[in-house]
Structures are given as C-alpha cells and as structure tokens.
Specification:
Layout (H helix, E strand, L loop, with lengths): L1 H24 L4 E7 L6 E7 L4 E6 L2 E6 L4 E2 L10 E7 L4 E6 L4 E6 L4 E7 L4 E7 L4 E6 L4 E6 L5 E6 L4 E7 L4 E6 L4 E6 L5 E6 L6 E7 L4 E6 L3 E6 L5 E6 L4 E7 L4 E6 L3 E8 L2 E9 L7 E3 L6 E5 L25 E6 L5
Antiparallel strand pairs: 1-28, 2-3, 3-4, 4-5, 6-7, 7-8, 8-9, 10-11, 11-12, 12-13, 14-15, 15-16, 16-17, 18-19, 19-20, 20-21, 22-23, 23-24, 24-25, 26-27, 27-28
Length: about 350
C-alpha cells in the first residue's frame, strides 16, 4: 500500500514544480517607485550590492548611493571620480572601484565610509570596471586605448595590461571557468580572457547580432545574454561560443541582466522598453515587453528582491532630436534625474 502513496507524492511534487515554473514565466513587472536624485542628468552604469542593500549609480562626477530597503538616496556620495562610468563591488573586501574616465584611473573606495582611499592608473578612458572574485582582481576596460588593465584588489598593483581587438563595452566574470567575457562593440564579437594568464583565450563572433552593448551571465547553464543595437538580445553558449537563440528588443539597448532564481533575462533600451525573456534550455522566449520611460537604458537587478532599477530623466522637448549617425543622445531637463524601480510584486 505504501508504493502507490509514494507515486502519488512524486506526481504531486512534479505538478507543484511545473506550476511554480509556469508562475515564474507569467511574472509581470510593473513600476514600484520613482527615486529623485539631485545633481547632473548624466549617468552610466548601475551596480547592486545585495548584501548591504545598496545601489551604486555612476552619476556625473560622483557615485550616488541608494538604500534599496528604503528606496532612498543615502546622504553621502562617493566623490573624486571625474567622468565616472562604472562601479565594481568587492563586498568581502569592503572595497569598491570607480572607473574615472576623465582621470584615466580607477578610484579605490572604502565601502564602510564611502571615502576614496587610493587610485590606480589605467589606460585611456576606463569604462566598464569588473571585480573577479576568484583571483580578487579588478578589470578596467579602457575605451579609448582599447585595452584592459588588471590589478590586485587589495594592493592596487597592476598585474597586466592586455590589448583588445576593438572598443570594449560591458563585461562579465565567470570564476568557475576562469574567464572574463567582454563585448567588443565595434568588431561584433565577444573577447574571452583567461584569468590566470590575462591573455585572450578566444574571440566569438555574435552574428546575427551587431554592435553589442549589454552583457549578463548565467553561469549555471553556461549562457551569455547580449544586447545588440540591431534590436536583438542574443543567448550565446559559453561552452561553444555559438549563438543559440535570440529575441527582438527595443532600440538603444545599453544593459542586460539575468535572474538565476526565475531564469529571466532582461534587456533595457533607451526607447523606453525592457524586454524580459524566459530561458528554457537552449531556447529564449519573450514573456513581457515592459514600458518604462525614454532614456532608461542602463539597469541593475537585485537578485534578492528580483527588482530592477533603471536611470533616466525628463526629456528636453525643446532640444533638437539626437542624430543616430553621430551617436548623439537625448537632451534632458536639468534637475530631473531619477531612478525607476520595477518589480513583479511577488517573491518567486
């Protein structure tokens, strides 16, 4: 009599898992809050530290800090970061690293005090900056000199400067594989860096993608999600380097994110949309096109709350429309910069 009972329990468990997966695929994101942020209407990368419930916003010449439990700006900001692009977080070291593009350096920040405690010289115009947790090294991708500067996160000592085949954009660390991936935007390829030798291990073409910007990693399933300016989000295998699937997205993509708990991939676009797609094996299916606001192109995802954060400001309607050929961007009304918080309203 016990065997049928075991079978019934097993079937019930399978049904529960199936139902949970269906619910996750049906998650619909919506606006939760707008957070006004004082200062310039110029920004770049957003970075989340879920352990301290902080969002770091590269904003003007400083890094604005937001408490994600209160969805409010922290009084202190990180300064001494001229032309800041991005902010990398080493939570276990209580260090942060801000790429100061105008100074050709990375500012080293004490996360407990938010004070700059040192600088590391890099190549020209460091843009994306990344902390690799296995080697405890920082990778600063230099846009103008087309190189990557690698340095020790604890000492600041430069361990390598590696030339790249073109202009670097977003990057992702894959500690178990001993790799760092980066989009080479003007060459339509992904560069694979070996974290031991700091040399190029492979170059992967991204056709049918073009002019890649955003990147996010699903390390468990060995997938990269790449946002391209020809209105595609790609899913690429980190085992073979091949493009496995793609979904259409909006225009002006800048960032990507992946949520390992829901298997959802996100692409945020300057046209005021975020495409949300479900990963299922080697397939990718759009489950929502979230309407945001024009200019909301950069994004960060909180893996604990599953909320996404986007930055934008009020568009200056009196200004001339930007030229795509000249790579111009929208003009914004001073004093209107803000962070938009979107969530599903439920915890999977």
């Amino acid at each position: 009599m016990k065997k049928p009972c075991v079978i019934l329990i097993g079937l019930a468990a399978i049904a529960a898992i199936s139902s949970n997966q269906t619910c996750r695929a049906d998650i619909q994101y919506h606006l939760i809050k707008e957070i006004p942020v004082p200062g310039e209407t110029k920004w770049d990368y957003l970075s989340i530290d879920p352990e301290s419930s902080r969002l770091y916003v590269a904003h003007g010449s400083e890094v604005t800090v937001i408490d994600t439990t209160q969805n409010a700006v922290v009084n202190d900001a990180i300064t001494n970061t001229p032309g800041v692009h991005g902010f990398a977080i080493a939570a276990d070291l209580q260090r942060g690293f801000a790429s100061a593009g105008h100074a050709n350096s990375v500012s080293v920040v004490d996360l407990s005090t938010l004070q700059t405690i040192g600088t590391v010289n890099t190549g020209e115009n460091p843009d994306c900056v990344l902390f690799e947790p296995k080697t405890k090294e920082v990778y600063a991708f230099n846009g103008h000199s087309q190189s990557v500067t690698v340095f020790d996160a604890t000492t600041g000592k430069v361990t390598a400067t590696t030339p790249l085949p073109g202009k670097p954009e977003f990057a992702a660390a894959d500690p178990k594989a001993g790799r760092v991936y980066d989009n080479i935007e003007d060459q339509n390829e992904v560069v694979v860096l070996n974290t031991t030798s700091h040399q190029i291990a492979a170059l992967w073409p991204i056709a049918p993608g073009d002019s890649a910007s955003g990147m996010a990693l699903d390390a468990k399933h060995h997938h990269l999600f790449i946002g391209c300016h020809n209105n595609l989000m790609l899913m690429l295998s980190t085992k073979s380097g091949k493009v496995l699937a793609s979904v259409p997205i909006g225009s002006g993509v800048d960032a990507n994110a992946f949520d390992p708990k829901t298997d959802l991939a996100f692409a945020s676009c300057g046209d005021g949309t975020v495409t949300i797609a479900k990963e299922d094996g080697d397939t990718l299916t759009t489950v929502q096109t979230l309407k945001t606001e024009p200019g909301a192109r950069t994004m960060a995802l909180d893996p604990v709350t599953h909320n996404i954060y986007l930055a934008t400001a009020e568009i200056d309607a009196a200004a001339a429309m930007p030229s795509a050929e000249k790579h111009e961007r929208l003009k914004f009304v001073p004093g209107t910069f803000k962070i938009l918080v979107y969530g599903s309203g439920e915890t999977p």
